[in-house]
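I need you to check the entry underneath: sequence plus fold tokens. Let me know what the token row says about the fold.

>
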Amino acid sequence: MALGLILGIVVSTSGHGTTKLHPTAANSGNTGVSSTAVEDTCDIIVPAHPLTAKGLATPYQLTGPAGGSPAATGCQMSNPVNLGAFVQATILNTQTGALSVYNPLVITAGTTPAIAPVVPKLPKHAVVTIDFGFNGTFLLQQGATSSALAEGNCTDGMPGSPFGQVSFCNGVNFFDTAFRLEREGRLHIPSPGIAKNIVASGGSLGTGRECPTTRNFDMIDQDPSDNVTTKYLYDPSTGQTAQDNTANQARMPGAPVLVNGSDNALVDDFLDPALGCTPLMAPDLGNHGVMTTSQALDELLAAANQPARVALVPENDEMVLGPGNSLDAAKTDLYRAEIGQAPVDSATDASSSPVMFCQNMVNIQTAFIAANEKVFAAWPSPVPTVGDTLYTFMANRLASSFDNLNCAGFGLHQSVTVVNNGAGAATEASLNTDPEVAGF
């Protein structure tokens, strides 16, 4: 899985200053953007009745903001590095507790799918959450009908203050239901498992430590749990997209794969294989039940196995800042609720307030990366233009997160020093693992 992703990934720095896994079409060269104009903002048109089988199978449409055309703005799926959009649904059967995944298709407005999407067969008693990912800066939801967004309980942020790359539909209801079923014993989320190749700080290989999740400071960045693991097939000759499933791969042999720059993909497709771990997976209703990952599955796994110092979306994450880059607890709570995280309060601030998030990230992740240097150095880089191995990539990502969260403003010091090659990729990294305490 990791090697396949590497073919489809280049680096891009988002408008939020985030070093992410950002995609291009694998082996496709010029993907045929019809305009040199590139916005940092696009609209995505949400179909009517988005939480139903028909709504999920109706293609979402990527288009320009404020009535701008795809061609004039660059808001096209043929422009995946800058402005590709991705949608992912996770389904919970409230009677049996069974989970499943379905990846709705995104097409460029004005085009048709390369192959018609599979219509999923949803359980009779289903609760659906829909997560959106974007490789630009701001993806704004628009309804195909006047009631579509309300029907889906959809949100892209606070009024006049969008999250940015991510948005959601019905996440609060999904996670509230999932947590209730867990308490009732009708939904069982496993442990993350024991890592086979992990090295605990100061330990030796295979020390029996649990695999990291999206709420571990070992692996988070400045905006944890954002974007999705959805992939699409792309036809460069027509600019059309199709769902990435076995049948479509056979009908579109050699088609480039479009992927979303995602923290979840980093865990599921790189860190887990490198450490000898396996992500939580569920049947893909668009691919004959083949097991697959999703952002919501990652959050369910993380919620059920939180460490004592849990990494939740911090208030200084740029996606939850308010007007004028002010801290906004209400916006942070809205984002957290859509992915099943606890709200801002004294309990969560103990580990994930802006200052404590920075301190824990520096102390925990620096030691984790340093202890696992040999493991990560032997694994391919998710983004070779950021780091030439998984080790240098992780180190460079940590350094960027420290800067983007302004952790120095809390009296902390940069723990990572990298050496770059002529192309700007990190080829060496040294880490200072001395514990730090924030001070002003």
